[in-house]
Design a protein that fits this description.
Length: about 200
Amino acid sequence: EFRRVLFRSAHADISSIVAKNLTLIKEMDDALGIRADENAAYITARGDDVKAVDVLNSTLDALSEFYENNGLEMDTIPDGAGAPETTLLQGGKQPEFEISADQAPETATGNSSYGGQGQATKAIFDLLQYLVDDTEWEIQKSDDAENKSLTDYNEYVARSKDTLASWLQMIRTWKSPTQRISSPSASTKISSRRPR
């Protein structure tokens, strides 16, 4: 009778652990789906941000080259209050023009000399540079968040696998209740004695 009770108890324990295994496996599968969605969103957003930085840098290069080619000094224009420091960037593919890239546009008054709207251009240049810096900071921040998310996911998977392995070991141990009983229990020995 004792062995039958022990077997039923072990069977209930095994059933409980199998249910827990199935639940944990489902949770791991859900976590993988969430992780894949997060990673896809990160890759898309990062790609968009990198393209935006490239476009902004190209714009800054073209603006800088225009000022340099026309002998205009943007650095003589004072920075506005709180405006980021201007950094002239070099390199990049230059636009092709029907007329010379070095020829300044004609002004509305018909005057052939171009002085430009120096302070307005400086503010635009500084704003573009601020956008580059801010977008690069956002890229770094999202890279850090992606790395943390990946680390957290990998740690979760490792812990879950350890849990599954320990539960599997428990099931193996409980598969045969007779293996857990090396000798008759004390209650069996007591019940086989004759009363005095």
